[in-house]
Design goal:
With 140 residues, the chain is of the alpha+beta class. It is built from eight helices and four strands; from the N terminus they run βααβααβααβαα. The protein has one domain: Alpha-Beta Plaits. The structure holds guanosine-5'-diphosphate.
């Protein structure tokens, strides 16, 4: 059975461009409820740890530099079938290929600076949520 929670980050390109509020509106309009949320900035070491699964990929260094370059908003979201439903809402990794109306189509500028993160599995949603939020914050 699919889980009802996912994890997101609004990335530095989107916070820097003043899109945070508009993106949160889209998330709420799509039926997600926010269970935890925080505005913060990753150090380079934080970004390396968060994206450790991508450490062998050619764009890893670029991704780490980019994700630690400015503020992000981390959040745990709840909705039925949350992981798949949220990935539908954000659209394809490359905004040039993202469907009309998706968050990446509306707000992303490139495959690297693609406005938002969305977990790709229930297991990763739980791991990623725990990266930012304590047990007490997560159980609200
Ligand atoms: P996602 O699940 O849609 O976020 O995509 P991936 O898991 O494949 O990649 C993780 C993140 O790495 C993406 O959201 C992008 O920010 C970044 N990324 C993916 N592909 C590329 C690429 O070819 N070049 C660069 N610079 N960054 C990339």
């Amino acid at each position: 059975m699919s889980g009802n929670r996912t994890f997101t980050m609004i990335k530095p390109d989107a916070t820097g461009a003043g899109h945070t509020g508009k993106i949160i509106d889209k998330i709420i309009e799509a039926g997600f409820s926010i269970k935890a949320m925080k505005w913060t900035q990753l150090s380079k070491e934080d970004a390396q740890a968060f994206y450790a699964v991508h450490s062998e990929r050619p764009f890893y260094e670029e991704l780490v530099d980019y994700m630690s370059s400015g503020p992000i908003v981390a959040a745990i979201l709840e909705k039925d079938n949350a992981v798949a439903s949220f990935r539908d809402l954000i659209g394809a990794t490359n905004p040039a290929e993202a469907a009309e109306g998706t968050i990446r189509k509306m707000f992303a500028t490139s495959i690297a600076a693609n406005a938002v993160h969305g977990s790709d599995s229930d297991e990763n949603a739980a791991i990623e949520g725990s990266f930012y939020f304590s047990e007490r914050e997560k159980t609200k």
